[in-house]
Amino acid sequence: MSTEVRVPTLGESVTEATVATWFKKPGDSVAVDEMLCELETDKVTVEVPSPVAGTMGEIVAAEGETVGVDALLAMISEGAAAPAPAKAAAPAAPAETGGESIDVMVPTLGESVTEATVSTWFKQVGDTVAQDEMLCELETDKVSVEVPAPAAGTLTSILAQEGDTVEAAGKLAVLSTGAGAAAPAPAAAPAPAAAPAPAAAPSSGKDVEDAPSAKKLMAEKGVSAAQVSGTGRDGRIMKEDVQKAIAAGTQAAAAAPAAATATPRAPVAADDAAREERVKMTRLRQTIARRLKDSQNTAAMLTTYNEVDMSATMALRKEYKDLFEKKHGVRLGFMSFFTKACCHALKEVPEVNAEIDGTDIVYKNFVHMGIAAGTPTGLVVPVIRDADAMSFAEIEKAIAEKGARARDGKLSMAEMQGGTFTISNGGVYGSLLSSPILNPPQSGILGMHKIQDRPVVVGGEIVIRPMMYLALSYDHRIVDGKGAVTFLVRVKEALEDPRRLLMDL
Fold it and tell me: Of 2, 67, 348, 365, which is the most buried if we count CB atoms within 10 A?
C-alpha cells in the first residue's frame, strides 16, 4: 500500500514553498513522524514528517522546486522493516526486556513559534508514568505548553533539562514501555551530542547546493558563503542561516554604540547587593516588553480621552442581572456592554478596526475583540471571534471562559491571534486614568478605568454621578483625530443610553 506525502499548511497567507532539502532518498526506511524533507517559505522553514512507517518511494518534487499547498511531494510504501531507525537510539531495550523506546517530542507550539524553554520537569529519570500523564511544561513567547506522556512506561532519559531552549519537533526525553527500561539511559544520552557532528564536516566540502532563497539573500546583502554556517543537511546553507549571519554582523557592529547608549545600572553597595534577588525574565515577559516597545517605535500612537456617565448602564445591569444569570447561567458584567458599544462604534468608524499592511489599509468586515487579561505570569490578550455577531450572554460566557483559561495558563496560540481591536480594563486594579499601548498590528485599543462618584453638571445643576474615564489609543497613520473622537463619542453615547444599541443608533 502506498501513502502520499503532501505539502502541509504553510501558514496564513503563505501559498507556496521551495523544497530545500530531502533527508531521505528512494529505498530508505522511514519511521512514523521521521523527517522526510524541509520546505522553505518566505517566512519560515517547515519540516515534513512521514505520515506512516515504510519505505521511501518516488520523490515527485526535487530539491529547488517550488510547490503549492497540498502538492504531492513523494510516495511511501508501507512495510514492516521501516520502524528500525526509530529504535536505533536504544537498541538494548527491546533485546533485553521486550520493551519499546518511545521518543517524547516537543508538541506543535503554534503558528510562527519555533522554540520554547523547558520550564519544569514533573518526572525524573526512572519514574514510572501513565499514558497522558504530564511529564514537563514548556514556556513559549506567549503560553505555557504541557507535554503529556505518549504512552505508559518508564522515563529512561531526559535530553532537555530545565532552562534549556528546544526547537519545535525537538526531542525532550525517551520513554520505555519495558519493565527494566531504566538501564538504557546511559546509551541513549550520548545520542543528542552526536547529532551535531555531521554539520561540522560540510565546511570543507564545496559541492553542497545551498537553498535558492539563501543564495539570493546572500547576493542581495553582499554576504559570502564563508561567513555563514549552514544548518541544513550536509551543511547546506538555509535562508535562516544567512539572516542569522547578517544579524550577528549587525549586532557586532552595533555593540559599542549600544553599550554607550544603554543606561548602565547604578553602582550598588555590597550590603545592598547581598539582599537583592536577580530573576531571569520569562519568555512571556520578554515578549511583552519587546512587542510593547515595537508598538511604540512603529505606530504613530496618540490617545484621546472622554468620560462616560455609567448611571444608565449600572441601572440596567442592576435591574436584569438576576434574571440574566438565571436564564443564561453567567453573570452580567460591564464588559459585554463595552464590547457591544465598541462593535457598534467600529461599524461607523471602520479605520479603527483596520490595519496597515505595507502601503495598503486592510479593512475588517468583522470584529475579533481582544480582551486584555492580567495573569500571574503577565498580560495576555485572548480573542473573542466575531464578537459583533454575538449576544450579551454569548459575550459574557466567552469572556468568562477565556479569562479562566488565561489565569490557568491554558490558552492556545490560536486563541490569542487574529484580534482586530482590544479592550483593556485597568479599572479592576483601581486605575483612574491611563494611556493604553496598541496591540500591533491593531490600530486601536480602548482603556477602561475605575468607576468613581464625581460631581458633574446636569441640566444646570451639580449632581453626583458614577463616572468613568475612557481612553482610546490609536495609530495616527491610519486613524485621523476626527475618526478617533467620533468612535469614543459613539461608545460614550451607547453606554449612557444602552437602548441605542437595541435600536442600532
Answer: 67
DSSP states of 320-335? HHHHHHHHHSS---SH
Domains of the chain: 1-88 (2.40.50.100), 94-184 (2.40.50.100), 214-247 (4.10.320.10), 285-503 (3.30.559.10)
pLDDT tens digit sequence for 325-364? 999 999 998 999 999 999 999 999 999 999 988 888 999 9
Task: Collect all residues with Cβ–Cβ distance below 8 Å to 91 and sequence separation of at least 6.
Answer: 187
Of 322, 368, 476, 504, which one is the catalytic site residue? 476
- Tell whether the model's pLDDT for residue 386 goes beyond 70: yes
**Angle, nearest 10°, between helix axes 481-496 and 311-328?**
70
Identity of the highest mean pLDDT range in 202-206, 210-214, 379-383, 390-394: 390-394
CA atoms of 180 and 98, how far apart (whole Å):
9
- Verify whether residue 480 is a known catalytic residue: yes
State the CB neighbour count (10 A cutoff) for residue 42: 12
For residues 490 and 342, what is the distance between their CA atoms, to the nearest angstrom? 8
476 classed as catalytic: yes
Cell numbers found for residue 473: 489609543
Q: How does the average pLDDT of the chain come out, rounded?
A: 80
Would the pTM of this model clear 0.70, i.e. be above it?
no
Taking the alpha carbons at both ends of the chain, their separation in whole angstroms is 63
Q: Where are the alpha helices (DSSP H) in 225-266?
A: 239-261
Catalytic residue among 210, 241, 480, 504: 480
Q: Is there a contact between 390 and 384 (Cβ–Cβ < 8 Å)? A: yes
